């Protein structure tokens, strides 16, 4: 994938969802799942198996990076892994949003989007 290149490939839905849920914050996996569900009013969810497989791929592709946990974090169990979107991840999300915007324009033109008229 080459962000900011017209030939970049579409991101899979869970990858885009994770990038958007992260925003410019650092979060651990469970917080990413919660943020996604909260920010979409429960319309989008990612299951733990999908989430952690996607996170692994995203780290390998440079879309997100692992961060140190906050100094004030107290955990009775193992230390949580935190992730943050990279510049490459931000560019990939921006490119995908532009691709989806073009598709949305087509849907609006065909009167397929409730609440948005031509």
Structural features, described:
The protein starts with 12 loop residues before the first helix and ends in a 9-residue tail after the last helix. The longest helix is centred in the C-terminal third of the chain and has 23 residues, at 87-109. It is mostly helical and 118 residues long. A 3-stranded antiparallel sheet has the order 1-3-2. Mean pLDDT is 90; it is low at 1-6. The chain has 4 helices and 3 strands, in the order αβααββα.
| Tally of helical runs | 4
Category from helices, strands and their pairing? mainly alpha
* Low-confidence parts: 1-6
Q: Give the CA-CA distance, first to last residue.
A: 33 Å
Strand content: 5-15%
Give the number of DSSP strands: 3
Can you list the strand order of the major beta sheet?
1-3-2
Mean pLDDT: 90
Determine the fraction of residues in helical runs and give it as a percent range: 40-55%
Radius of gyration: 16 Å
Q: How would you characterize the largest beta sheet? A: 3 strands, antiparallel
Helices and strands, in order, run as HEHHEEH
Shape, per Cα inertia axes:
elongated
């Amino acid at each position: 994938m080459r962000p900011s290149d017209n030939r970049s490939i579409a991101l899979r839905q869970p990858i885009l969802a994770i990038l958007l849920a992260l925003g410019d914050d650092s979060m651990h996996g469970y917080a990413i799942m919660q943020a996604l569900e909260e920010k979409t009013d429960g319309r989008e969810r990612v299951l733990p198996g999908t989430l952690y497989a996607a996170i692994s791929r995203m780290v390998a592709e440079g879309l997100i990076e692992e961060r140190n946990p906050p100094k004030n974090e107290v955990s009775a169990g193992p230390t949580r892994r935190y992730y943050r979107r990279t510049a490459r991840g931000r560019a990939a999300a921006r490119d995908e949003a532009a691709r989806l915007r073009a598709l949305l324009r087509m849907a609006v033109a065909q009167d397929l989007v409730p609440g948005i008229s031509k």
